[in-house]
Amino acid sequence: MQSTARIPDDFGYGEEQALLRREAKKLLESSCKTEDVRRWTETPAGFDEGLWARAAEAGWLGLVVPAAHGGSEMSMTSLAVLMEEMGRVLVPLPFVGTLFATLVLREAASEDEKARWLPQIAEGKVRAAVGAEERRGGWDFAHVEATARREGERILLSGEKELVVDAPSAKLLLVTATEPEGPSLFALPAASPGVTVSADQLVDATRRSGAVRFENVVVSDADRIGAKGEAVSILGRVMPRMWTALAAEMVGGADRLLGMTTEYAKIRQQFGRPIGAFQAVKFPLVDLLARIELSRSLVYRAAAAIDHAPAQAEKLARMAKAHASDTYTFAAAKAVQLHGGIGFTWECDVQLYFKRAQWSRAALGDAAHHRKRIAEMVLEG
Amino acid sequence: MDPTRDTAEKRDLRERARAFFQENRPSDPGFKLPQTFLEVESEAQFLWLKAWQKQVYGAGLLGVEWPTAYGGKGLPSGSQRVVAEEMGRAGVPFIVNRIGLDWAGPTILAVGTEEQKQRYLRNILSCDEVWCQGFSEPGAGSDLASLRTSAVRQGDHYIVNGHKVWTTQALWADFMILLARTDPSAPKHAGISYFLFPMKSKGVSVRPLVKMTGEGGFNQVLFEDALVPASCLLAGEGDGWRLAVMTLAFERGASEGSATGGALAAGGEVARLVALAKEVSRDGRPASEDPVMRDRIAELAIEEEALLASALRARVPGLVEERPLALPFLGKLVSTEFGQRVAAVGQELEGPLAQYAFGAERAAGGGHFQRAYMNSFGFTIGGGTSEIQRNLVGERILGLPKST
Hints:
Largest sheet of chain B: 4 strands, mixed
Mean pLDDT of chain A: 96
Number of strands of chain A: 10
Order of helices and strands of chain A: HHHHHHEEEEEEEEHEEHHHH
Mean pLDDT of chain B: 90
Largest interface: A-B, 45 and 49 residues
Distance between the termini of chain A: 21 Å
Distance between the termini of chain B: 45 Å
Largest sheet of chain A: 4 strands, mixed
Number of strands of chain B: 10
Number of helices of chain A: 11
Helix content of chain A: 40-55%
Number of helices of chain B: 11
Oligomer: heterodimer
Helix content of chain B: 40-55%
Structural class of chain B: alpha+beta
Low-confidence stretches of chain A: none
Order of helices and strands of chain B: HHHHHEEEEEEEEHHEEHHHH
Shape of chain A: globular
């Protein structure tokens, strides 16, 4: 089957996606203005429960949840649409962590575990996070120092996960720990005795993450997600979706920066002219536009591959993340530079996006990290 | 339109094209073929390429999107791109009558009279008549509207005087799409007319130019009291600027009906880099094992995939609705600059071997990238420089104020 699978000419983009985009735009433009974002990010939780509830009502939390478990299970193309729109307004919701966990559960959890968690996730009652990276791992999921030690029927988990996105507000944590067979994934309620989550100070104020420590936390075989030693392979199957989702979010953010900076360049006068008339300003904006358009093409191509031609998914998704990382970084730098002095200030919204770009680039592998794998596929593949 | 039928049609076309190019791959002509249609310099090359185009057209693989009434196949938009992709995959020689197919043809198709369409279009596809483009002048490059070649009406004829430059294939062409000033008193954009000009007219002389690669292909064309029938005017007198903008849009890949498939469909350059990386050495090991070179190649592989994905995305209305013209307008800029970067990295990969000239016996990969790099400037300059493209995109797509 897979050998004949092809990416459809329309990228799997139809009326369903157009409707989702319209509704997302409407909801986000009215309930997530920049002043709201600023206000929420100054609170300890970092987000607004009211907006979370509206996201759940809109079906966003069930977007990747199978219908049998109360979700709508839409395509990766749909998820890309939603992420792109969220990225435009810098929505400060613990969405990424829950999305990551949902994908892992959907991919590998037992029917019991799925039935236990997925309906609650879709309803917005349970927020979740995935702890798969450690201090010395450098984006390598196979580097797992945390251990899962068997004691009769009990399994004792000990270790520490770093920079676990959305961990501070998560009720459910999925963490990796090594068994004799290799790293496995375990579902761990955040309230379990022995679990501590400390909030990180992130470069991006609109995101939250935390270090998750667990010491002799008791779980059972039923809490393992997938088979023993399968964590790296499960995560590997999920990652193309995560890379593409983040890339889509970055494209949305970069596009918003382009819009803000272009508008500013039309209004801001210097030497008796709007600065956008100067080629020194115009040309970098055009280069930014070009990069955004290319990133966006890769995002939707990767999304369509995930949905229709899985054999091509990993390469295209890595390409999308790598390209979008560079694009968002470039967008942020140019936006600050072209806004001039004001762009360097706290009050200018550009800085919020600038920091989101910094966070996004470093999350789930930066451009160089992905290019290294892409080089292997291109040169050895 | 039923998209599933569309897809089956394209699949069928792709299979047909793949089979044709596999079975009819031309054998080595025994002389060096040029790299692109811009470098055709000898009559032997030209005649060989002309025969090749005729064969491809004969197989029903050219002008597939043009109406059947004018020799096309009337297939849906995007079909020619399928053929172009298969040509790229098969690595067969290029189609020589590019200016006819992509620039003159679509313009005639858009605004020509029925008589003009019948007269010219079929011969463009079959390569019985080859076209060149007389837009640029020594004093009017990217500022095209300042052109000075004149056409003065006298009865049923115009008398043309002037000087064109960078005229690709003028040496071989049967016709030229010619811009000339018919009203010197009108504002500079208003006094220009667009002619379908027979190159074999009296008073026309062609002088070849030699590029820095040492190759020909470009020419200067001089008009000294050259007489041309008034019936050769395309649309009305004074319509030239509007039509030129249309032709340039086709040239820049904004065309959906492009007969050869458009600039963005280009591919296979990164595969060439990969092959070279395995052939040459750095620090005594294959360059393909050098981490820095690997990163450069990966970067370009991503870019190539992004260009391909963009060409495809441009056809999905829902995915371009916010800026429907951005991708077509960016096409020339991004693809030509990509080509230039690939060629630069190709030479970098070669390390010390990059010192060899194209065609040198000891050159790696035949010195392809040495020549390609030099030639790449033809694309970033010709048809509106990258700088002009950036102005155009900045003003038309981003809505920025005009540059002074």
